[in-house]
Sequence to fold (359 residues):
Amino acid sequence: MDKYEFSEPRVVLTNTAGIDIAGWLPDGNRLLITRSYPKSYRERIETLDIRSGEVQVYAERDHHNGKPVWLSAIQGVAYSTIPGQQVELRINRLHPSETEIIVISEGNNIALGFSLAVEPGGRHLMYLVDRSGGRPQIWDSVGRATQAAFFDVTEWREFPYPDSAKNALPRWSPNGAQLAVFAYPTLFLVEPGPNRVCEVNLGSKSGVPRFALDSHWSPNARYLAMIATARLPGELVRFTDLVVMDIHTGASRQIQLAAKQVYITDLSWDSSSRYLIALAQVEVIQERPVERLFLVDTVIGNVRPMLPERAFGGGSIEGEQMAWSPNGQIIALKCPVWLETEPTITEDRVCLISAKVRP
Fold:
């Protein structure tokens, strides 16, 4: 990991309100982002070409309700919005520039927006709606049809808190062979082909079950990196751990980023599937959270601070603060400008860091 060299961050986009990073598009040249309007709950869903600086607006929505996702098969975005008293799943493309409503969920079903998962080919979209219980729905963007997934998490185990099954979050592996489905307080690995399901026990801490707040597949689909915690329903999340599981062997490794406890807000893998970067809050100064980057060797568990003199992230949704490009050469991350005297962001920004490996 000492062979990695990282450039100083370069600002490529600014906004007087918030910016969130949903991820890279498959071409590795464009970012999928959201930008908020000042003093408003509305935001734009856009793509940013990092070479030309061109921004294309795909949609606008009310309230930030989970990451938008990219559907390569139709060159469009899927996203959740909350107009009024209902949650809607919508699709937008540039050509034609029209909005398609896929499903309307009555009531405050915010889990819909956070459950969006796209299969690697970019054709099928998986999501959860309240009326389907613990059985995800799969929408075919080309065939324009919806069918229920073969699995229902409520059939696998009895949940001590019924709403947990309705809030299960799927994550499709890059090769499409597996799904990681996490719901309080457990994690399931699903193989859609042979219709197999395995429940993963992440252990406990102080007698409280440990579970994943978020999970990230490595590009080769062998490792699953998780931001894990342990708490009872209704309790605040007081700590997070980085846990990396080898899907082939079933072995898990907990990796400590620093000597003292830190709060992890985002993870992103490099293209080799060995290293990842973690963004974590390390301290609070004058009520302002200070977040720093760490380079992690997931095979042997070594950790190296990245650009330790700089702080990044903040003022954003956790899990939407950074992304490592598919070719491993560029890291996009939030680098906002803060007031020195109070925890206020005066300008939100997206920066790029070049990543190189010395021979």
Observations:
- The helical segments are 111-114, 163-166.
- The CA atoms of residues 231 and 237 lie 7 Å apart.
- The domain at 4-321+329-357 is CATH 2.120.10.30 (Neuraminidase).
- The first helix runs from residue 111 to 114.
